[in-house]
Amino acid sequence: MCNATWGEYWRDIDGESMLFCCDVCADIFQTMVNKVKENTGWNSIDSVNLVGNYNKGRECSAKNGDEEFKYYFRTYSNGKFITFEKR
Q1: For each of the chain's 87 residues, which pLDDT tens digit applies?
Q2: What whole-number distance in Å separates Cα of residue 58 and Cα of residue 7?
Q3: In terms of CB atoms within 10 Å, which end of the chain has fewer, N or C?
Q4: Where in the chain are the domains?
Q5: Residue 38: burial class (beta carbons within 10 Å; 0-12, 13-18, 19+)
Q6: Which long-range CB contacts under 8 A does 28-33 form with residues at least 24 apart?
Q7: 55 to each of 37, 51, 70, how far by Cα in Å?
Q8: Distance (Å, rounded) from C-alpha 74 to C-alpha 17?
Q9: Which residues pair with 72 in a beta bridge?
Q10: How far apart are CA 47 and CA 61, in angstroms?
């Protein structure tokens, strides 16, 4: 999430062990997954595509089977969400 190339922080997200650089980036990803599920009613997400960066925010899409949900989000440096918008 922050484009760091270092760190070794593991977290289980929806039954999958995922590697992050730090706990803040893991928090951001977990919150993003939860927000996608809240907006779609999905129980799981097959894939996520993130485009953008910390400064300008990220244009994203998530897929569950043939369904796709597009959204934008931006966070503070502490991982709290500034914006989460359906596109």
Answers
A1: 776 777 789 999 999 999 998 999 999 999 999 999 999 999 999 999 999 988 899 999 999 999 999 999 999 988 899 999 999
A2: 22
A3: C
A4: 9-86
A5: exposed
A6: 28/1, 28/75, 28/79, 28/81, 29/1, 31/79, 31/81, 32/60, 32/73, 32/84
A7: 25, 12, 19
A8: 24
A9: 59, 85
A10: 8
Q: Which amino acid is at 60?
A: C
Amino acid at 23: D
Reading the block at residue 43, the tokens are 């129980």
Residue type, 78: N
CA-based max dimension of the chain = 34
* Amino acid occupying residue 62: A
